[in-house]
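Revision sheet: C-alpha cells.
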Amino acid sequence: MALSFRQSEILDLARTEGRVVVESLAERFNVTLQTIRRDLSELADAGMLDRVHGGAVIRTGVSNIGYGERRRMNEAAKAAIGRACAQAIPNNCSIILNLGTTTEAVARELLGHQNITVVTNNINVANILLTNDSCEIMVAGGALRRSDGGLVGDLTADFMQQFKVDYAIIGVSALDREGDLLDFDLAEVRVSRTIIRQSRHTFLVTDASKLERSAPVRMASLGDLDAVFIDRPLPPELMRQCAEWDTQVHLCPA
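Predicted:
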C-alpha cells in the first residue's frame, strides 16, 4: 500500500502513542472526521492498524512490539505511573521489579529511596538503580533476551522462589475487559506468576493503551493483585469488579 503523507503521519503517531483518536486526528490535520475514518480503515485493511471504538491502535498480532518502540510509547503516562507507584512504596523494604518499560519508569522514581532491596530479572532496571547507593540489587539468572534485557526461563523462576518480598511491581503486555493480565512469552509469564506468589503485595503498572491490545498467554487476574496504577480509568464494569476484588485503582494522569 502506498501511504499518503497524512497516513504516514497517522501511522507514526500510532507507533509513538499506541493509540490514535479520530477527533484528535481530524483537528490535527484540519480534515473531516469521515476523511480520518477512511484513512484508518485503509491502514487497517493494509494490516498496519486495528480499528477500535473512536480510533485505532497498532496491530500487534501474536508478537510484541519492539523494545525501542515500546519505550517511546506513552512516555508521559509511564512517568506519571512510575511516580505514583514509587510514592506508594516505603523506604526500608524489599521489592521485585519484572520486565517492562513501565517497571523501568518505577525504577527511575526509586533512585531517592533509602535502604531498599530490589530483586529483578530486568537488566535495564538493575542499570537504572546502580546510582542509588542505598539500594541492594539482586539480579536473577536465566536466559537473557537480547531484545529487551529480560531474563526468563526456569532458572529465573527458581531464582525468584528464593525470596519473599514486601512488594512486587509487575508490567504486562495486554489487559482484557475481564481483568485478565496477558502476555506473549510463556517463559516470561511463568516467572511473573512466581513473582506474584513470592510477594506480600503486588502492584500492576500499566498505561491504558494495554486495554486495546491482546496477547495469547494469561498471567493472572486483577483480582489477584492489591493495586493497579494506570493513567486513565478502567471500563466501568471492570472498575466495579476491582471494587469487589478489593483491588485498588490509582489513576495517574500524565
